Amino acid sequence: MFDTDKGKTLLHLARAAIAGELGFISHDLPRTGWLEEPGATFVTLTLHDQLRGCIGSLEARRSLLEDVRANAVAAAFRDPRFTPLGKEEFAKVVIEVSLLSPPQPIDFTSEQDALAQLDPGLDGVILEYGMHRATYLPQVWAQLSDPRSFIEHLKAKAGLPEDFWSDDIKLSRYRVQKFEEVV
User: Fold this and answer.
1) Would you say residue 183 has pLDDT above 90?
2) Contacts of 88 (CB under 8 A, 6+ apart)
3) Is the pLDDT confidence value at 30 over 70?
């Protein structure tokens, strides 16, 4: 199946899942084999070019079908940064689905070495330190194009000081196939 067809299917599934939660009727698509394979997705909602919700999975632990539906509903109704999406916003919200590759650990000797290994615009990054964990999708590079700034903001998102560094920090990278509704 072509990626654009996959994208249309994933976007339809995300919108249909949100519609169902709002009480709207939406037709389901026929199940295909690739949707039953394990997959990890992030679903991002924007309203008037502003973030309205973003929830996802970093690792494939359920079928792609289940993952995109669950993350769409969570992005619309359970992102703690926002109030639940209302019926009046539903028609105006733009949905983006990012299909993640498996995360790959980054081996580094220092913060500078880690920064030098990042591929701005392409790498999604997971930062882990003890109980602290955060990720930025590759799309975030559009706002934070400098690797140092990207990692500083990622540390802050994880609840760490921007200037914090430890040899115990773990970084992983992943890539995404991004599909966005056309408005």
Assistant:
1) no
2) none
3) no
Q: Is residue 64 helix, strand or coil?
A: helix
User: Out of 3.30.1360.20, 3.40.930.10, 1.20.1270.20, 3.30.1490.150, which CATH number does the structure's domain 104-175 have?
Assistant: 3.30.1490.150
Nearest CA among 125, 130, 139, 137 for reference residue 160: 130
CATH number of 3-100: 3.30.700.20
pLDDT at residue 100 in the model: 97
In whole angstroms, what is the distance from residue 113 CA to residue 91 CA?
Answer: 45
Asked if the domains 3-100 and 104-175 are classified in one and the same CATH topology, the answer is no
Q: How far is CA 16 from CA 9, 73, 176, in A?
A: 10, 10, 22
